[in-house]
Amino acid sequence: MSRRLITEAKNTWCPGCGNFAIQHMLKDVLAEMEEEGRSLDEVVLVTGIGCHGKMADYLNINSFYAIHGRTIPVATGIKLANPDLSVICCAGDGDAYAEGLTHLIFAAKRNMDITLIVHDNRVYGLTTGQYTPTSPLNFHGRSTPGGTLEKPFNPLELALVSGATYIARTYTRKLDHLRATLREAIDHRGFSFVDVLQICATYYNMTKPYNARAYEMEDHDPGDFDAACTKMREWDYSSDAAIALGTFYRTTAPTFDEEFGNGKQSDEERKEAIAALLDTRG
Ligand SMILES: Cc1ncc(C[n+]2csc(CCOP(=O)(O)OP(=O)(O)O)c2C)c(N)n1
Ligand code: SF4
């Protein structure tokens, strides 16, 4: 019998928060994988600290609550120790693009076979509304009442030049698109990165502008690096330009975890070592 994927934990997200959409679309993807015969015991969720981090409490799968900014190194360690696992990170934009930024760059550079889902609400939600690296120029937040003086950076471009082999953007008000993108990212072999434009209903509610400006790409070729770069530059996370959603870039390349394990241990030896480790922990 398939397991109940939403836990009994009391949900404390604000009404209207886009995290609900990510939680439920990820749940649907996991249920679909299970129906197809994949054991969910082989899936691990790693979260950062922030409103997004509560995914670890609310989804009933193996999970690890990392410290702020450290989802990716924890996920990397898990994947290197047991490459049979699918490792999914749910991180905030503060978590992945500020505190933990270099981890993103190096995971992309190494092409680590993990999936990074960034709940990009473009604000620090849990700590009540400070600006992040994707907040627009002149953002009036709790720590910047006079408006920010810094331009945001474009996380998609950063991931592209760093070596990510799967890069997509989706939006929490487009559920089918969100679900399909999460599935594609999890299925991709290599570092997959999804920037999810997530509504923060309380500190940065972008529903109207996103509804007006977000569109799904139709004739873009994700195998073309230069076209991906051009498409990513259409919107700089600050202007009022149209916002493309979809898979910007996808390619295949050797993954760090494959290379790391090569010739070191047979599958049997690795499984025995993991079983022995689990035994010693009672
Ligand atoms: C090392 C460290 N620095 C700062 C904090 C305080 N802190 C907790 S959550 C958070 C920001 C959360 O923002 P984001 O990652 O965007 O997640 P959201 O709450 O928006 O989902 C900060 C600064 C912390 N817990 N640890
Ligand atoms: S503060 Fe924003 S991100 Fe956090 S739960 Fe509320 S709506 Fe969601």
Provide structural commentary:
The chain is of the alpha/beta class and 282 residues long. It has one domain (19-280): Thiamin diphosphate (ThDP)-binding fold, Pyr/PP domains (Rossmann fold, 3-Layer(aba) Sandwich), CATH 3.40.50. It is 37% helix and 16% strand. It has 11 helices and 8 strands. It has an 8-stranded mixed sheet with strand order 2-1-3-4-6-5-8-7, sandwiched between helices. The protein is globular. 42% of the residues are buried. The site of iron/sulfur cluster has 11 residues, from loops.
Descriptive labels:
Rossmann fold, binds thiamine diphosphate, 8 strands, alpha/beta, 37% helix, globular
Q: Termini distance? A: 27 Å
- Number of separate helices: 11
Determine the structural class based on helices, strands and strand pairing.
alpha/beta
Strand line-up of the largest beta sheet? 2-1-3-4-6-5-8-7
List the helices and strands and how they pair.
Elements lengths: L18 H17 L7 E5 L7 H4 L3 E4 L5 H11 L4 E7 H7 L1 H10 L4 E6 L34 H8 L3 E6 L3 H13 L4 E6 L9 H7 E3 L8 H8 L10 E8 L5 H6 L5 H14 L2
Parallel strand pairs: 1-2, 1-3, 3-4, 4-6, 5-6, 7-8
Antiparallel strand pairs: 5-8
The structure holds thiamine diphosphate and iron/sulfur cluster.
Iron/sulfur cluster binds next to loops.
